[in-house]
Specification:
36% strand; 412 residues; alpha/beta; Pectate Lyase C-like; eleven-stranded mixed sheet; single chain; ten-stranded parallel sheet
Length: 412
């Protein structure tokens, strides 16, 4: 049996020293064995904060209580259910040296954390957040929603947590906000219907953002400040805009899919630098069916964007964007093309009541073999704007390119 100062007391230790005997200490390996990383169980249905002890057979009811009692490097294992203020949670939930884990296999579909509380940010003053991911923390396999006004799901500031296989959905501002000096890992999450942005990267943060899905939100990602994220293998679809890259940020963009965003796939503004692929390091991104344009460069002063080695479905580029010559030629043609705007669906006929206010002359004309209303023919940018306006009014609107005369002849 081995002894240490802690278990033999100072008097015996002194005696050993006096007789010249060596002191025996517990090795690091034995310390780990004696103090294994603990798992604290939480179950909103079966748990009890007063009588529970965190073991699987006697879980706590709230994540709040588990955080209070958990030791460093513990895993807080959360069972299915909804964890909210009504169930006893106190927000924000603050994680330091802890892992918050639900069910990564389905991105926490059945484990919902709903709520928010006041957080004082060093850079952004008072905020309302659900979870603060602190130093050496992990959030994995849960669904997080902040339903409060301007609410954020997860907030990361000057720390580098791992945010992996979660669903960050329906927050009234952002699903995730990363700021300060952070090198967070954001991997394989689902960002859905967050009102402002799926995610914001600000200040000097340098996160790795990999294999996530951003859809049905305002901006998929807003990248600002002097941040330098790496974006690899993500999907941006059906957002207002796929990405906004602004400030003095620098972004490396590889193997992403940017499709069906209402306005633009990527907007680059301010003095930002976007590396979408170079002649020696192909981008590998796929652009398809974005509304006004795929890449929109409005930097001031003008910063050239390289976008080599990507896949394009009818590319539309704006501003100083360099790509292979065939891509540039196609983009120029597409920008000059005319587009027809249609309203489809059972409510399409109601567009006739807006003729005067919209200044249009709609006519009945089939779309893909089904009854529809042709609103008009416009340049691509105006057509996309019209579709946005009609969508906001509750119509289902689409626009398609008008075949060129050569195409019509070929079809005949």
């Amino acid at each position: 049996m081995k002894f240490s100062l802690g278990n033999i007391g100072w008097s015996m230790a002194g005696a050993l020293l006096c007789v010249g005997l060596p002191l025996l200490t517990v090795s690091h390996a034995e310390e780990v064995a004696l103090n294994p990383i603990s798992i604290v169980h939480v179950d909103v249905t079966k748990g009890d904060d007063a009588t529970g002890n965190g073991k699987q057979e006697k879980p706590y009811k709230t994540i709040t209580r588990a955080i209070e009692v958990a030791s460093v490097d513990s895993t807080i294992q959360v069972a299915p259910g909804t964890y909210s203020q009504q169930s006893g949670e106190r927000f924000p939930l603050t994680l330091y040296y802890l892992k918050l884990v639900g069910d990564p296999s389905n991105r926490g579909k059945e484990i919902k954390i709903v709520g928010g509380g006041k957080y004082l940010s060093a850079s952004f003053a008072n905020q309302d957040i659900t979870v603060f991911a602190g130093k050496e923390s992990t959030v994995r396999g849960v669904t997080i929603t902040n339903p409060n006004n301007r609410g954020y799901g997860i907030w990361v500031e000057d720390t580098s947590p791992t945010i992996e296989r979660n669903s960050l959905a329906n927050s009234l501002h952002d699903g995730l906000f990363i700021t300060g000096d952070s090198q967070a890992k954001v991997i394989d999450n689902y960002f859905f219907k967050n009102i402002s942005d799926g995610m914001t990267v600000a200040d000097i943060a340098q996160p790795m953002v990999k294999n996530n899905i951003f859809e049905n939100t305002g901006f998929g990602i807003d990248i600002t400040g002097k941040s330098e994220p790496k974006m690899i293998g993500n999907i941006f679809r059906n957002n207002l805009d796929g990405l906004i890259i602004e400030g003095k940020s620098k972004v490396v963009f590889r193997n992403n899919t940017i499709e069906k965003n209402q306005r633009s796939g990527i907007n680059v503004m301010g003095e930002a630098i976007a590396d979408i692929g170079t002649e020696i390091d192909a981008g590998g991104n796929h652009f398809s069916n974005n509304g006004r344009m795929d890449v929109n460069n409005v930097t001031r002063p003008k910063v050239e964007i390289q976008a080599f080695g990507n896949k394009w479905n009818n590319p539309v580029l704006s501003g100083s964007v360099l790509a292979e010559l065939p891509v540039m030629v196609d983009a120029a043609k597409n920008a000059r093309a005319s587009y027809q705007v249609y309203v489809v669906g059972k409510e399409a006929y109601k567009i006739n009541g807006l003729k005067k206010s919209l200044g249009i002359s709609p006519v009945s004309r089939p779309f893909q073999g089904k009854p529809a209303i042709l609103v008009g023919t416009y340049p691509r940018d105006k057509a996309a704007t019209f579709v946005s306006q009609l969508t906001e009014k509750g119509f289902t609107a689409v626009f398609i390119a008008v075949p060129s005369s050569s195409q019509k002849t070929a079809k005949k």
